[in-house]
Structures are given as structure tokens and as C-alpha cells.
Amino acid sequence: HVELVESGGGLVQPGGSLRLSCAATGKTFERYVFTWYRQAPGKQRELVASITNTGITNYADFVKGRFTISRDNAKNAVYLYLQMNDLKPEDTAVYYCRAEDEPLYDYWGRGTQVTVSS
């Protein structure tokens, strides 16, 4: 079955870095768009960055120049990454991985907590 599992979250000081990973397994994802979202307490979930199957990336303005999204494609898996540098307290949130092949397929992971605090 299809599974998206995020990892790499944790507690980091302002100005620090983290690398999030998302392992998507269980089917061929070659046409899928992968996206990182985040949701802070009391706020709506928001798009952070996305990457298409051809490597085209898109970033929210609040992470441009600080975060980098990338993906490694395998036969029945995709490994998605989010390199986060110069982290700020406002980056604190649960980060989710999403895989889409519109309009039929839409998968989400359960999230990984990122806390930026001194």
C-alpha cells in the first residue's frame, strides 16, 4: 500500500539547519508532484515548496533563499527532501509531505515536528 513517512524534524536554535526527508513507497510515483506543507498551532496549513516530476520547483516567499526541495526517484518509491537553513522561530510547525497526481491521487504523510527555539 502507499505510504508517505516524514522524518528529520526536531529542536533547533534560530539560525540553525535541518534536513527533512519523506519516503514515499508503494507505487510508481514518476508523474507525481511532491509538496512540503506546514501547519503551525492555530494556523492554517500552508505550502512551503513543491517539485514536479521534471524537477521544476516552487517556493513560498517566506522560505525563498533558505529552503531547498529535492527528490530522488526510484522504481516504486520517491525520496523527498527539504533542506532548511537559517531557521527562524516562525518556521516552527508540523511539516507534511504530499504526493499528487491530479485529479485521482492525493496522498499525505503524518508529519514531522520542527521547533525553532533558543
Low-confidence stretches: none
The overall strand count is 11
H/E series: EEEEEEEEEEE
Number of helices: 0
Average pLDDT, rounded to a whole number, is 96
Cα Rg: 14 Å
Helix content: under 10%
- Specify the biggest β-sheet: 7 strands, mixed
Description:
This protein is mainly β. Helix content is 0%, strand content 56%. It is built from no helices and 11 strands. Strands 2, 4, 5, 6, 9, 10 and 11 form a 7-stranded mixed beta sheet that branches. The protein has a 4-stranded antiparallel beta sheet with strand order 1-3-8-7, with no helix packed on it. The protein is globular, with a radius of gyration of 14 Å. The mean pLDDT is 96.
